[in-house]
Amino acid sequence: MKIMKNILKCLIILFIASISIACSNDSKKIQINTIENFDFAWKFHEDDISGSEKTNYDDSNWRAINLPHDWSIEGNFSKDNPTFSRGGWLPTGKVTYRKTFLVSESSKDKRTVIYFDGAYRNSEVYINGNLLGKRPFGYIAFYYDMTKYLKFGKENVITVKLDNSNQPGARWYTGTGIYRHVKLITTNKLYIPVWGNYIKANKVENNQATIAVETNIVNDFDEDKFIDIQVSIFDKKGVLVALQKESKTITKNNSIQHKSSLSIENPLLWDTETPHLYVVKTDILQNGETIYSETSKTGIRTLEYSNSDGFKLNGKATKLKGVCLHHDGGPLGAAVHRRTIERQLEKLREMGCNAVRTAHNPFSEEFMNVCDEMGFLVMNEAFDEWETPKSPTTTQNGAKKKVLVHKYAHVFKKWADKDLTDFVMRDRNHPSVIMWSIGNEIAEMRYESAAKIGKRLVEIVHELDYRPATNGVHGYGSLKRPNQKAAATSDIYGYNYIKDWRLKLEREKFPNVMAVVTEHESAQSFYPRSTYLYGEKKKAWWDKLGYEKKESFDWVEKRDIRGESGMEAWKLVKERDYLMGMFIWTGWDYLGEVIPFGWPARSSSFAPIDLAGFPKDGYYFYQSQWSKKPMVHIFPHWNLEGMEGETVQVYSYTNGDEIELFQDGKSLGKQKNNIEGVEYQTWNIVYKPGELKAVSYKNGENIAEKIVKTSGAPSKIKIETRKTEMQANGQDLIYAECTILDKDGNEVPIANNLLRFDVEGPVTIVGVGNGDNMGLEPFKANQRMAFNGKCLVILQSTKESGNVKLTVQSDGLSSNTVNLISK
Ligand code: GAL
Fold first, then answer.
1. Confidence category of residue 19, pLDDT binned at 50, 70, 90
2. If you classify domain 716-822 with CATH, what class do you get?
3. What superkingdom heads the lineage (predicted)?
């Protein structure tokens, strides 16, 4: 017991030493590897600046910036931008980044790697004038060993050139820039390469988990090395729960694949509600001294997939209540911020969502980390195109056209295998990943040629990992059904857009396939949040947008473009045990792909949450179906000026079994709600200003209430932040949500007052937004008009700590201030 305690003590000391960037001036000691945040102090210039890769190039008049950075989001929306409606009318082009940095003399005997989690796109990276490599795919992480080009004890210059000028270049907004994090990794010449440590935590039997760790170790020394490889697992309190140590010899200039297997008794399992994580630490020791050390997190869970019971997490049937997401963060564009992701996932979790599909490309490392920590199940998707390019509908000058986009197809043959390999290698340690997706609506899936490609891609996935592969395909069961040989290449059939009859046909013909609804419409109309229009006003709104499709004009989702309505689709998925679940299109609105609209729309409107993060009505439909927390929601709002005396249709969503509506205190009766049957209610009510109250009951007990009230004139501003503290690291964010209230504190759901934001203390305003998908004001500003009562401002910390004050003002309204802190 005492020995065990001592080992434990030593290990904890070792652990702390390694994460605190151990270094020593004692020349006999070998410095442990380091990972440096390389996001700060870059220089930026628009265009491809000739000669800027050279060391002596003078960039003193270039703009100073920190990463992650998206240049496109700083631009103005314009009808002339060649990104068109697909790219949200924002500018793209060529851009160049430079960073000058000192490399110490002591790095001479080390290996120095530069790691980019993603740069959009066609990157060329140079160190001191030497080309390290090119990478066309803008969503992939990549790295280069720069050791041989470095000048030790001197300044060195990295230059990154990006080219996103070939437009339209995507079916949605991509951003332009080094929009993800960059790291500088320094190791000894004996090391584990990037993504070289593979942790499998998917076996649990009789309350005992087996963790398999496969470690690639490289010896770049010109001599053989005798080493110990030690793998330790710690629980979240830092207590050692498993340890394995083994000795090996690696011959000079060689590498080995080392396998460890560790057991944990009574493991705390990772699941969607309690996502327990363990820390796995891999140390390489020489003569008892650590020469390399790396830590990762893992979550222990079992994953089962079947053609009868769908998906099981830890032995329990778990329906995927999923959303597709695109990678952008609304007002911040493509630039990745951990807090943006956390906020997105917090709101989705409150909606009852438990799964995300990374539509339709690799996401950031932060995104995967946050999913691990919050217990989201991830369908991790690689591609939107294989060899055949797509020509999506694009709106130009009011006319709809099919426009070829220059996206990935032209590089697929050369790069797909490498991109897919790197994608799986980067993400395979994440417990949140439950399946891979090799494509979305791949054009060639209707032809046998896709079978060969599909087979190859799935083989790559299987070679690297134990989780199955799916492929989101549109047209199953219809005349456009994919080629069967091509369809059969994925482990799990992915249905994009379902109909009842198609599912029946499909199941009859292929009773043994495993299946998931990779994509389907959401239960949300095309209207922006809190937009309720009647008569002439409604007609004018649609006429202005030049769109004619009567079923789309309803406030509940009746788009019925390619499948059942969102509500109906959820019912079909719910009643079929074999379907693993569904992913709605999309969880949040995203920039670009403004269909069915054209200019002036600049962001999509499919989702139950708008671009600024405010829930729309559809959000509450999913909450009523997916969340257990008692809730009731009614809409429209009750500020329907001009509708006095007219009959108005009111909708309600609840997870109670009965609902009662009151108008100005008088009951209008009760309606039943069959939760299993995926129901919602409609009520015809004669409008008069006043109050509507919905009361939801379960087994006769009042479980939730919701009031909508005709408000008075705008009078004051409510400011809400989910956090009041931020990290003074130059990267953390606080989102402040503003709501306009009347003098009695009622929300004014039609207010559009201009709000001005002032900050005091060590923060900057990095974005504003309001959720209006047709708002053409820039996102980088310190003022914004509210849209239907709401507005958003985003603050970013600096590296200084201190008190922060945010003041929001508007003409004619009393101002408001919140006190925050950065530390
Ligand atoms: C799907 C496609 C998505 C998005 C959506 C818009 O077919 O997979 O990427 O374009 O349509 O409705």
1. very low
2. mainly beta
3. Bacteria
Q: Which residues contact 522 (CB under 8 A, 6 or more apart)?
A: 323, 557, 566, 584, 585, 586, 606, 607, 608, 618, 622
Which protein residue has the closest C-alpha to ligand 1 atom 11? 585
At residue 24 the predicted structure's pLDDT band, cuts being 50, 70 and 90, is very low
Topology at the third CATH level for domain 305-532+561-605: TIM Barrel (3.20.20)
Q: Are 668 and 655 within 8 A, CB to CB?
A: no
CA–CA gap between residue 717 and residue 811 (Å, rounded): 11
b vs e for 8-45, b when ≥16 Cβ sit within 10 Å of the residue's Cβ?
beebeebbeebeeebeeeeeeebbbbbeeebbeebbbb
CA of residue 441 to ligand 1 center, whole Å: 8
Considering the candidates 441, 444, 593, 658, report the single residue annotated as catalytic.
441
Burial (CB < 10 A; 0-12, 13-18, 19+), residue 189, is middle
Q: Please tell me the predicted confidence (pLDDT) of residue 28.
A: 45
441: annotated active-site residue:
yes
3-state secondary structure of 722: coil
- The predicted structure's pLDDT at residue 759: 98
Residue 385 CA to residue 171 CA, distance in Å, equals 11
Encode 519-568 in three state secondary structure: EEECCCCCCCCCCCCCHHHHHHHHHHHCCCCHHHHCCCCCCCCCCCCHHH
Mutate to test the pocket of ligand 1, among 497, 585, 603 (most ligand atoms within 8 A of CB): 585
Side chain identity at 818, as an amino acid letter? V
3-class secondary-structure state, position 708? strand
- Ligand 1 centroid to 154 CA: how many Å? 50
* Confidence band for 560, pLDDT divided at 50, 70 and 90: low
Q: 238-292: per-residue pLDDT in tens?
A: 999 999 999 999 999 999 999 999 999 999 999 999 999 999 999 999 999 999 9
H or E element in which residue 272 lies: none
Average pLDDT of the chain is: 94
pLDDT value for 23:
34
pLDDT tens figures, 667-692: 999 999 998 899 999 999 999 999 99
**Average pLDDT of span 6-17:** 39
Q: How far is the CA of 488 from the centre of ligand 1 (A)?
A: 22
Closest atom of ligand 1 relative to the 561 alpha carbon: 12
What values do phi and psi take at 557, rounded to 5? -70, 115
Q: Whose CA is nearest to atom 3 of ligand 1?
A: 585
Over residues 554-579, the mean pLDDT reads 86
Atom of ligand 1 nearest to the CA of 441: 8
CA distance 706 to 115: 50
What is the tens place of the pLDDT at every residue in 378-405?
Answer: 999 999 999 999 999 887 777 788 989 9
Distances from the Cα of 313 to the Cα of 98, 202, 275, 376, 533, angstroms: 46, 10, 12, 12, 44
User: Which two three-digit tokens encode residue 2?
Assistant: 């005492």
CATH topology of domain 34-188: Jelly Rolls (2.60.120)
Ligand 1, pocket residues at CB < 6 Å: 171, 359-360, 440-441, 474, 496, 519, 585, 593
CATH class of 632-636+640-709: mainly beta
Task: Round to whole Å and give the CA distance between 39 and 96.
Answer: 15
Spans of all domains in the chain: 2-30+192-298, 34-188, 305-532+561-605, 632-636+640-709, 716-822
In the predicted model, what is the mean pLDDT of residues 348-364?
98
Q: Count CB atoms within 10 A of the CB of residue 524.
A: 28
The fold of the 2-30+192-298 domain, in CATH, is Immunoglobulin-like (2.60.40)
DSSP state, residue 181: -
Q: How far is CA 369 from the centre of its chain?
A: 10
- Distance from C-alpha of 454 to C-alpha of 420, rounded to nearest angstrom: 12
85 alpha carbon to ligand 1 midpoint, in Å?
14
The domains spanning 305-532+561-605 and 716-822 adopt the same CATH topology: no
**The pLDDT value given to residue 556:** 76
